[in-house]
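hey so i finally got around to running both of the ones u sent me last week. sorry it took forever, my laptop kept dying halfway thru and i had to restart like 3 times lol. anyway pasting them below in the order u listed, first the sequence line then the structure token line for each. didnt double check formatting much so if smth looks off just lmk and ill redo it

first one:
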Amino acid sequence: MLKNFEDYLLEDGKAANTIRSYILNVGLYLKWYEETFGTEMTELLHGNVLDYRSYLQNVKKQKAVSVNAKLSALISLNAFLVASGRQTEIVVSKADLLRIQAAYTSPSDLTEKAVDAFRQTVLLESGTRNHALVTILAYAGLRVSEACSLSTEDVDLVGRQITVNKGKGNKERVVFIGDKVINAVREYLADMTRDSRWLFPGRGDNGLDRSSVNRLCNDYSDKITPHKLRHFFCSNALEKGYSFHEVAHQAGHSNIHTTLRYTNPTSEAMKEKANKL
């Protein structure tokens, strides 16, 4: 069933990382079902899903975000079962997701000084390629998957722009870049010896794997991650005079409310205020 479910997700246009997550989470549900009832699942039942949700919350002590990720996979599984004729009813929906209060604080907690010190460490100890990569994440705001998927033709240093062809939802967008990105990429291209269509080549004829970028950040910082560099870009751009809509476009946010989060105070600032009470 999982293989057919995976094919269904592919045809539905789901991103590769979403498919992997859904397959994993459905597999966890099937395992729970078999261990609980002593038989394989043949049909989704609403009562079973609610029992599973309770198990995740009260036994596994998982956070609401993790629980909702698993329930979202089951929502897609339910749609697949109905579409394939294996089931006639939709029994699990978004109404079964746990309600989560939106975070008030800004998701960004990095200063420009800390980011630039990190970039310098990467340059000195890891070379121009990795320096160009982390600079693109911090000062162009690309998602790590977008940066890893860049071809050399996507970067126009003369035109001062990067074309993201594989953005979230397969949307294409143009990101405008400044001197920090241009200089870092130019230095890297001057040192680049491997002939590849990828800006950041990985193994074989593939682009760099995102896990390599995670390891890079872990090697040179116990705080900075690729996603935090993207957060930094958004908050830094707003501080430097970008409008909400300009940041939303640069970062590829489909919802302006995502961008507005970066106008909120940081958690550290909120803690300082709380200490004054």
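and the second one:
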Amino acid sequence: MQFGVMNDPRKRLLEEIERIARHGFDFIDLTIEAPGAAPETTDWAAVAQALQDHGLRVLAHAAPYLPLNNPSPLVRQATLDELRRCIDIAAQLGAPLCTTHFVGWPSYLAEETGYEYYKQAYQILIKHGEAQGVQVTLENSPDNKHQLKYFREIFFRLPDLKLTFDIGHGNVNTARSMTRDYCFALADRLVHVHMSDNDGTADDHLPFGAPRTGAINLRHELQVLRDFRYDGTVTLEVFGNERWLLASRDLVRDRLAQIA
């Protein structure tokens, strides 16, 4: 597996690139997010050059606050335009994929209509990405109520949509980890993984082993990925002190070696 980390959008992006490369990560999961990486104010040519200078691969990540589920059709259209701009940036940087977030649909839509809404929106995004060599992925949210059911239906209707699975999200308010369930349903669509720990009540982006109770079983999660022959990119979404991030990377590598 290849390990990367997300830039902190509160900090200068070029400095974040230097930091991530200095610590020997394989790639940056570049979140295109204000203020440090806002689409409209960032010099993306300079970013592309910095990535090349540091020999750092890149994946793209649309901002999680884009409201595709907003009741206003004008806001939804603006969101779709912004997501297409994220795909454009991904292509400019040479990123092979762009992660987007599942936020549901406007609450006044019936479930069946919500599926159709996602189909129409993501057909536009997928086509836009295909023209530029960028895969569009959908990431599971921490709201696990009926979400796997929704994903099965959405992915069935969109055969070219790919999956970014967040293991931390799949541990929030669930009876058990959802990783195996998603892999059983969508392993053929899985192209990227996010990992962090939490206590099962909120997506806290903790280092592995930090929660006193309710933490993920790291070895189990890695074993599931191996069982489904996943050997791709993994973003460590461990926020806070940088030592926690580096220690988490070492721990993941150690656990992987034990199940190799």
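quick thing i noticed on the 2nd:
Helices lie at 13-22, 44-54, 73-93, 111-130, 147-157, 179-186, 218-227, 242-259.
anyway thats it, ttyl
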